[in-house]
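User: Assemble these into one structure.

Assistant: Restating your components, then the assembled model:
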Amino acid sequence: MGLKKSKDKTKAKHSKKTIISLLLFLGPGVILALIFFLAPVILTIALSLTDMDYRFNWDFVGFQNFIDIAHDFLIGMVIKNTLVYVGFTLAFFNIGLALLLSLLTTSISERSGTFFRLIWMLPRLTPSVVYGLLWLWIFDSTRFGLLNSVREMLFGNVEPLDFLSQHPMVVIILANGFVGASFGMILFTSAIKSIPRDYLYAASVDGAGWFFKVRKVILPLLKWQILFTTAYQTLSLLTSFEYILIITDGGPVFSTEVWALYTYHNAFENFRFGFGASLSLILVIIGLVASLIYLKIFKFKEMIQEPRIEVDA
Amino acid sequence: MMESREFKLSFFQKHGEKIKNTIVIIILLVISLPIILSYLWLVLNSFASEMKYGIIPTKFTLEHWRFLIESVKGYPNIWQVTLNTFIVAIMVMLLELFITSFAGYALSRYKFRGRKTMLLTILVLHSFPSVSLLVAVYYVLRTLNLINSLWGIILLKVALEIPWGAWIMKGFYDQLPWEIEWAGTVDGYSRIQVFFKVMLPLVRPGMAVTAIFGFLSGWSEFIFINTFILNQQTWTLSRYIKGVIGDFRFVDYGLLTSISLFYMIPTLVFYFFANKYLLQVNITGTKG
Amino acid sequence: MARILLKNLSKHFKNVKAVDNINLEIKDGEFTVLLGPSGCGKTTTLLMIAGIYKPTTGGIYFDDQIMNNVPPKDRGIGMVFQSYALYPHMTLYDNIAFPLRAQKMKKDEIDRLVREVTKNLDIGKLLDRKPFQISGGQQQRVAIARALVKKPKILLFDEPLSNLDAALRSYMRAEIKKLQNDLGITTVYVTHDQLEAMTMADRIAVFSMGKIQQYDTADNIYNYPANVFVATFVGTPAMNILNVEVKNYNGDFYLQDEGFKFKTLPQRKEILSNLVEKKLKLGIRPEHIRLSLKETENSIPAEVYVLEPLGREVIYNIKIGNNILKVLTEERMDLKPGDRIFMDFDRNRYHLFDAETGKAIDISIR
């Protein structure tokens, strides 16, 4: 048999051309990720061990920053605020309200349901400063704010309430909650929509009313989505502070100062970069650990399908 | 022989469906009231000189829109600021589009060592609290001499959003049948040629989604501008508005609402014309 | 036109052996069908011939030239996919012209070739439409046109008819066969439908679990199956298989099972004497069984289980011991489930297989 033999290159995994293509396709993204993710993480660790200030003079101080955190006179309040803020917003809005919205909007006609869901998407789309302005107006301490106008309409001439100063945490939770709810709402809605009609028909035939159907058919099928939203949003809430910055800026008197905002203030208003970095590092570590746990729990590895083509370049 | 019986339906049973629907809609309306009212106020107040009960306009005016012609005292020219905002939005959109269209394809269709690791890293990066790195990012930008520069913001924004964007694009590429790519290679093209001639055109919907969200994200950016841009002339509309809120909050809501409405124009345009995209983006990046 | 040789070809995915050391030699101009159930490795083999997958070990040769590392675009092949894989964003004309444009041909030359290939496939008038605007059958012809337009040396088909309705399938079977006859291109055709394989192939390679069970003409595969798998996979209704043992009663050899005792032809004595006490499987095709109401010399008593009328023929399911056999006949007999009848079968038309290996035992009378 005159078979022309050639070097059996079947062992070589990638041809040169493929490697170049991959570099071009993935290169820019990887470079940006290295500069703005990897480098900062390393820097955060490094900076947290110094006492760098706004002039970028620094001395190595070891773990002093962390000791300072533990003894900081505000840290107790900051931790309490953070827990209250994250806990209530998550429970009542990001999960609770989201569930309510998704259940209600899917129980009416598609058009009406979509109409309301779109209304609830508006906060998420709105630039944060504008959104903050709206909540400032709702709780405005003059009679022109929404809350006080409604009170005037209902009770006649009453003294305007300065709700924002008296219950700032409530305002914060409401503001973040109204935005946060849309995440869960979308996830739960698409899950509810994909429940096979047959399940619900069978339940109806078996005599189930609406509440029963929700409790026994729909909610159990939403377990994964609820878990995912809880995990995802907990991390998101822990590290968010943009709306709080705009609406109360941590006040009055640190009553809404959460950990992430405290970090920000220390670094960019007091210019204590070293100290700020150490505060950040706590969040970074929590973030990394949480992300890795999520990957394990939600079996993301199984969501990834293998490519079905082995042509080079 | 069966007896014929009349089933008496109660009022509730006869109109059950309608009653339920009405109750649900009322509940939804009540819950949504803060949103509906506040956005209404935003629009109405910017054109009203007097409001009853804070929300019902009684006199109309265009006074509040004077900022378009005359700079607000102590603040930079609105058009300069708008231009800055636009530059950030467009550049974020273009860079994101470019990088994620390519990265998404490689992640979806190429077999390579470390593919799984890279995909998992992307998921970690995405759920990572990027804001907690601000201190270190400041240092990085300073080293690159990008403090006070819009490009610093642009690159940072793009970098932080690519993991998510690449995942979304990957999702779109995942949905293209393998046979189409096989056909392209059999028809005489190298894989890169197949990418440009066949795959890329077929993910145009994904590119549209990425473009829109990229633009809006760049347009709405606030916190990085607030932190890293010190020069008023380099401000974007978000920082501008924050400043105005601080100064004019109890004095001139008209000005605040008109500038805010002005700022929201692209958002509202998208909202009214392309809202079907909003509810389509699948968060987990799998089929559907 | 080209010869294809697959030598010790294997494809492993992680720890799954999709294709397990196969050898296949396809002659120039031959129509070979790769037949088997899903997951048997036939499509993976086809994709390796195309160059879309790379072999784990072994070689693929076109006309003695090794092709393992040659990319699909340089292999001179045309391929028709199960879903047709037409490019949705291009017109049909552009779809068909696509392979020619890769070769940087001149516009008029491209136009001439596209018109030529579409004329014979009766789609010339549709060319400025897009794929979603035409029917499945028309899409398939466009896919075939695209594969043929570059005058390939080898033509590959991956279950092209499975998305068509029965009538269209029957029509296209004949059309594709005729096409291949006229053009004489070496063709490899993958399908799980044994009817397609039988009617279209010059030779059939029956696949199971990554291995080729038998590679032969349709007739030989039907009449001389190499093992139980091939015997039961090809032919509808499937060949009846019973577990039997060879028993020697006074010099006569019987094939015996519960409720079943069948006397064999004396010419087979020598062969069968070597098989006594071995566990065997007996295979009889449904059309080789005869039923009658009267007992005859070698007939076996049975009970009618259920009837499956097919219009032209009837399939009788009969019960013997614990076995249900299918019998195919055109004869109209007035039978109901539960009736007692007698069955006999053509003593030259049965098969014996080794029960352990499944391999056919040669019982031909010399």
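Residues 19 and 214 of chain A are 52 Å apart (CA to CA).
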